[in-house]
């Protein structure tokens, strides 16, 4: 019997590449699953939709979801679905170092989003106090790229493949998230807490894992780049560069919901004033049953 799953994610970027592959290759159908997908632009919207029951699973950067979990929302993180991404800081070509960002506007999605949290830590490490620059809400990555190109903002922090697109346009790479958070859970699957494992959610994760396995085959590089290019509307050259970043070495991630990564997100949220100290243990927000069954 075919099951329907109501699914949500934020933006169209390489962080959800396995979803595009699973859709285009009909991998969900292998598990008798039809995925009804909604794509949001604001990080808080899919979390809100999950909480009110209009979605059954979301795949998101876990920051906003964790804020709600700490407040008591009955949600659980069940898988870390992409730890290969990076946030990379691109600036106008005349800005050659971090000091050049003083007094400038830096585009982010919103203040609570992951790239903003990581960016503040990166800039602090590089000697810039929070009052030395302005974080300007500038929308999702395509909008931020547009504003950078138009000169509205001096820099922006984006993930793949948008960073490669900006590099090819001549913008200057200043730094990357791997410098300060080398093992960050860029996307995670989140569901509402249930007493039992939901079979169709488990099927979704199985299809996602199969998509990562397909991506990790070097023989699929060109087709994979075509898929990413089509879904993100970025040239295939940038999509191929993303493949080389994600899959060197060519091994898929395990999808294990690692406590270390969740702890990092909680720490960043507290640093930025979104959560109080002392921080709760990361394991409180993780449901390992899905991953355990995924491995059997």
Structure, explained:
The structure is a single chain. The strands form 2 sheets. A 5-stranded mixed beta sheet has the order 2-1-3-10-4, sandwiched between helices. It is an alpha/beta fold. It folds into 2 domains: 3-83 and 184-295, Periplasmic binding protein-like II (D-Maltodextrin-Binding Protein, domain 2, 3-Layer(aba) Sandwich); 88-179, Periplasmic binding protein-like II (D-Maltodextrin-Binding Protein, domain 2, 3-Layer(aba) Sandwich). The chain has helices at residues 17-24, 44-52, 63-71, 114-125, 141-150, 162-168, 199-215, 221-232, 236-246, 259-271, 289-295; strands at 3-10, 33-40, 57-60, 75-82, 88-91, 105-108, 134-137, 155-158, 172-176, 187-192. The chain has 11 helices and 10 strands.
In CATH, the topology of the largest domain is named: D-Maltodextrin-Binding Protein, domain 2
Structural class determined from secondary elements: alpha/beta
> What is the count of distinct domains?
2
The counted number of beta strands is 10
Task: Report the end-to-end length measured between terminal Cα atoms.
Answer: 22 Å
Separate helix tally? 11
User: Can you write the helix and strand succession as a string?
Assistant: EHEHEHEEEHEHEHEEHHHHH
The proportion of residues forming helix, as a percent range, comes to 25-40%
Q: What does the average pLDDT come to? A: 95
Strand line-up in the sheet with most strands: 2-1-3-10-4
Could you tell me the strand content as a percent range? 15-25%
The backbone outline, from C-alpha atoms, is globular
Largest sheet: 5 strands, mixed
Q: Rounded to an integer, what's the Rg over CA atoms?
A: 19 Å
CATH architecture assignment name of the largest domain = 3-Layer(aba) Sandwich
């Amino acid at each position: 019997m075919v099951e329907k799953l109501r699914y949500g994610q934020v933006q169209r970027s390489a962080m959800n590449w396995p979803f595009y592959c699973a859709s285009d290759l009909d991998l969900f159908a292998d598990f008798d699953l039809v995925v009804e997908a909604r794509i949001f632009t604001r990080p808080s919207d899919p979390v809100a939709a999950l909480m009110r029951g209009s979605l059954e699973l979301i795949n998101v950067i876990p920051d906003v979801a964790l804020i709600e979990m700490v407040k008591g929302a009955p949600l659980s993180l069940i898988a870390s679905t992409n730890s290969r991404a990076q946030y990379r800081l691109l600036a106008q070509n005349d800005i050659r170092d971090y000091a050049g960002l003083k007094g400038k506007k830096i585009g982010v999605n919103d203040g609570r989003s992951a790239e903003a949290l990581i960016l503040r830590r990166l800039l602090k490490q590089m000697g810039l106090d929070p009052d030395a620059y302005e974080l300007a809400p500038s929308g999702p990555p395509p909008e931020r790229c547009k504003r950078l190109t138009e000169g509205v903002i001096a820099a922006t922090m984006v993930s793949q493949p948008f960073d490669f697109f900006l590099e090819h346009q001549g913008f200057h790479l200043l730094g990357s998230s791997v410098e300060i958070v080398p093992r960050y859970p860029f996307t995670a699957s989140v569901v509402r807490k249930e007493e039992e494992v939901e079979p169709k959610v488990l099927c979704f994760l199985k299809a996602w894992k199969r998509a990562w396995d397909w991506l990790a085959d070097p023989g699929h590089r060109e087709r994979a780049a075509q898929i990413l290019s089509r879904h993100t509307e970025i040239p295939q050259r940038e999509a191929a560069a993303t493949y080389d970043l994600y899959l060197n070495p060519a091994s898929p991630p395990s999808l294990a919901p690692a406590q270390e990564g969740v702890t990092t997100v909680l720490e960043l949220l507290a640093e930025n004033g979104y959560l109080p100290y002392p921080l709760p243990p990361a394991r409180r927000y993780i449901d390992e049953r899905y991953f355990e069954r995924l491995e059997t």
